[in-house]
Design a protein that fits this description.
Phage tail protein; two-stranded antiparallel sheet; 11 strands; Elongation Factor Tu (Ef-tu), domain 3
């Protein structure tokens, strides 16, 4: 299956592709008061970038490819607990090195036996400089 990108050992494939990728870049300014006049802004630097990946995992088995949402969530939790920086690629574009800052899981569908059928995950990554 073709790769659409990766975050360290987590490879995005067609059936595991992010639904959305957003990047937040923020500049930092200090405001200085001036007696009898408007204040002045001074650029002081850049904040570290944040990238949000929205992923959806649906229970499926196609030939040699299988997706078990519970296993995928477990892999992501394990990756977050490692607290390591990994390169992020979206397509062939290198976005930089990032760490997992936050994992938000939503269990969307369970079968009659309580097995997870579909889950959504929002990963918030922070630039590692």
């Amino acid at each position: 299956m073709p790769s659409l990108g990766s975050f360290g050992p987590l490879v995005f494939e067609v059936l595991r592709a992010p639904e959305a990728v957003s990047r937040e870049i923020e500049e930092v300014y200090a405001e200085h008061e001036v007696a009898g006049a408007k204040g002045l802004l001074e650029w002081t630097g850049e904040k570290l970038a944040r990238v949000t990946l929205k992923l959806r995992f649906h229970s499926v088995s196609l030939g040699t490819f299988t997706c078990d949402p519970a296993e995928e969530l477990s892999r992501i939790r394990e990756l977050a607990r490692k607290r390591e920086a990994y390169p992020l690629f979206v397509g062939s574009r290198h976005m930089g090195k990032f760490v997992i800052e936050k994992v938000r899981e939503t269990l969307r569908e369970l079968d009659a036996h309580g097995n997870l059928v579909m889950a959504e995950v929002e990963l918030t990554l922070k630039e590692y400089n």
